[in-house]
Amino acid sequence: MMKAAQGVRLLLVDDEPHILQFLELGLLNEGFEVRTAPDGIIAISVAAEFKPHVAILDVMMPGMDGFELCHYLRSEETELAVIMLTAKDEVDDRVKGLTIGADDYMVKPFSFDELLARIQARLRNQFPGLLGEVRCGPFRMDSRRKEIRFKEEVLELSPTEYELLQYLVINHGLVLSKPMILDKVWGYDFGGEENIVEVYIRSLREKLGDKEHRIIRTLRGAGYRVDL
């Protein structure tokens, strides 16, 4: 897993105290600066003073729910990265969250490592200067140069290949479905065929010399996973 940068500020908002405590302790241990809030109203005050880089918002909260809070925070700070948490895996909720400005969406229960990977993915995409060059196994990624090195060799990548490989590597160890990849790399409103993912995966494997698919693995019926 990539090492989190010091000075990265995270805001956690959830009305379940045990979830707040668990996430706060884990993220503090990773080196983040963390503030918490038990509801949307308090979160607004905390965000105004704390100026977080990433806000992790529970959807189902009394009073102001996560959607309302996301909309408000987005109106105040457009560069803020927002990850929504929900106990329901409802497509309508996910679409609503993305439409009002959320950058990512996770369904409870989830693993801490997955949340950490998604936080770091948002930082890579929206605040690359905070992380600088990031090492993941044999990969070195520098988003300021839009450059990825594999075993110290610079890979010649198209812009889409760069975005795809970065997404796969940042989320190494996680199974990423074709719809997830299309959403993150091509955009959730992409109207093309899912098979485009296979085409780009094939190209990346060729450039990595991954003939036996040991780096980018295919999990039939599930998606792809990078193993480092």
TrEMBL record:
Keyword 4Fe-4S carried by entry: no
Annotated positions of the 4-aspartylphosphate modification: D58
Lineage: superkingdom: Bacteria
Name the record gives this protein: Transcriptional regulatory protein TcrX
Positions of the Response regulatory domain: 9-123
PANTHER family: REGULATOR OF RPOS
CDD domains assigned: REC_OmpR, trans_reg_C
Keyword vocabulary terms for this entry: DNA-binding, Phosphoprotein, Transcription, Transcription regulation, Two-component regulatory system
Organism: Paenibacillus pseudetheri
DNA bind region: 131-228
Chain ranges of the OmpR/PhoB-type domain: 131-228
Aminoacyl-tRNA synthetase in keyword set: no
SUPFAM superfamilies hit by this protein: C-terminal effector domain of the bipartite response regulators, CheY-like
InterPro entries: CheY-like_superfamily, OmpR/PhoB-type_DNA-bd, Sig_transdc_resp-reg_C-effctor, Sig_transdc_resp-reg_receiver, WalR-like, WH-like_DNA-bd_sf
Pfam families in the record: Response_reg, Trans_reg_C
